[in-house]
Write a structure and sequence with these properties.
- The chain contains eight helices and 15 strands.
- It is of the alpha+beta class.
- The protein is globular.
- The structure holds zinc ion.
- The site of zinc ion has 8 residues, from loops.
Length: 316
C-alpha cells in the first residue's frame, strides 16, 4: 500500500510534493509513529524527566548511551526502518510515496520520507514488511519508461547519510545443524553470534528441510565474521562436555570500501583510488571528499586488515 504523507510543513531542503496530492486526515492514520504523535500531543510533557546537560569547554553537552538511543529509536518507530538509496533524484517524493511501497512489496502501513539526497527513510509498521524490504538488497523499477535502481540497507543507530553503512542483512545457513537446535531459542542464539537475527526462513520454520537451517541476520561486514561456532553439549550428571563445531555459510556477503565508504567493492577495486582504469569497479559516489588521498592498497581479505586497524594494531 502507499505510504502515508508526513503531515508536518516542509523542512528546509525538503522536496515539495505534488500540489494535487490528497492530504489524508491524519487522525485516521493508524501508524506506529502517528499514534505516538497523538499520545505526545496530550501527554503532560512537563512531567517528563529530561536529560541533564553540563557545560564542557563552554559548550552545553548532553550525553546519550547507546541503550538510550536504541530506546528512542523504538519510540520513533526506527527499529523497523530501512534506508532506500536511489540511483538518481529524478523522481519526486510523492511519486515515490505512491509507488515504491507497492514495488518493494510492503503490505501494511509505512512512513516514507526523504532523509538526504537520494536517500529515503521508510518506517514499517509491520515487522514482516521490514524483513521484506531487507530481502531486496539491490533492485530496479520502471517509471515513465526509465529504469531506476534502488538499494536497501537497514537503518541502525549511528547511521550517517554521508556514508554508506557497513551493516547488511544476509542469510546465513547452518548445514547439518542437529534438528533439536532448530528450536527458536537455540537457533537464534547461534545466529546471534554473527549479528542481529531478524528472520527465519520458511523451510526452517515448517521443518521441511532438516539438513540446513537458515536465518537472516544483520551483520557488520567490516567485522571478522566467524566461519564456525563451537557448540558445547554438557552432560550435567558426569560434567562431561562434548564440543561440536557448526559451520556458518554466508549468502552473497557484500564487500565494503573504507575509502569511499560504499558497499559492493573493496579498496583494491576502488575507482576513486585507482582512477578509471579498473573496468569492473563500481562507480563511487561524489561524496568522496579527497580523491587523491593515498591509502594502503589491500590484498586479500581487507576485513582482517580493517579489524586489526580498528583494534589499533600495526599491520605491515
Ligand atoms: Zn571505493
Amino acid at each position: 500500500m502507499a505510504a502515508n504523507i508526513s503531515p508536518q510543513p516542509l523542512a528546509v531542503g525538503e522536496q515539495n510534493s505534488n500540489s494535487n496530492e490528497v492530504i489524508p486526515n491524519i487522525n485516521n492514520i493508524r501508524t506506529y509513529a502517528t499514534s505516538l504523535n497523538h499520545k505526545q500531543s496530550v501527554a503532560p510533557l512537563t512531567k517528563m524527566t529530561l536529560k541533564p546537560f553540563e557545560i564542557v569547554h563552554g559548550i552545553p553537552t548532553i550525553q546519550f548511551s547507546l541503550e538510550e538511543r536504541e530506546e528512542f529509536a523504538k519510540e520513533e518507530g526506527l527499529h523497523q526502518a530501512v534506508i532506500i538509496k536511489l540511483s538518481s533524484d529524478a523522481l519526486n517524493l510523492q511519486v515515490l510515496r505512491n509507488n515504491l511501497p507497492k514495488i518493494i512489496g510492503i503490505k501494511g502501513n509505512c512512513l516514507l520520507g526523504s532523509l538526504a539526497q537520494r536517500q529515503l527513510l521508510i518506517r514499517c509498521d509491520q515487522y514482516e514488511d521490514y524483513v521484506c524490504c531487507l530481502a531486496r538488497s539491490v533492485n530496479y523499477f520502471q517509471h515513465n519508461g526509465k529504469e531506476h535502481q534502488y538499494r536497501v540497507f537497514p537503518w541502525t543507530v549511528g547511521y550517517n547519510p554521508k556514508e554508506e553503512t557497513s551493516k547488511a542483512a544476509v542469510w546465513i545457513s547452518l548445514p547439518n545443524l542437529s534438528p533439536e537446535l532448530f528450536a527458536h531459542k537455540a537457533l537464534l542464539s547461534i545466529a546471534a553470534v554473527v549479528g542481529k537475527p531478524i528472520a527465519i526462513d520458511k523451510a526452517t520454520q515448517i521443518r521441511s528441510r532438516p539438513s540446513t537451517s537458515r536465518v537472516k541476520v544483520i551483520v557488520d561486514i567490516l567485522d571478522t565474521l566467524p566461519e564456525k561456532v563451537r557448540l558445547q553439549y554438557l552432560d550435567a550428571k558426569t560434567g562431561k562436555i562434548v564440543d561440536d563445531y557448526q559451520e556458518i555459510i554466508y549468502d552473497n556477503l557484500s564487500s565494503y570500501c573504507c575509502h569511499c565508504k560504499h558497499q559492493g567493492h573493496e579498496e583494491n577495486q576502488c575507482r576513486r583510488l585507482k582512477g578509471k582504469t579498473v573496468q569492473d569497479a563500481r562507480v563511487c559516489d561524489e561524496t568522496v571528499e579527497n580523491e587523491h588521498q593515498i591509502v594502503e592498497k589491500l590484498q586479500g581479505d581487507s576485513r582482517v586488515f580493517l579489524n586489526a586497524k580498528r583494534a589499533g594494531q600495526q599491520l605491515i
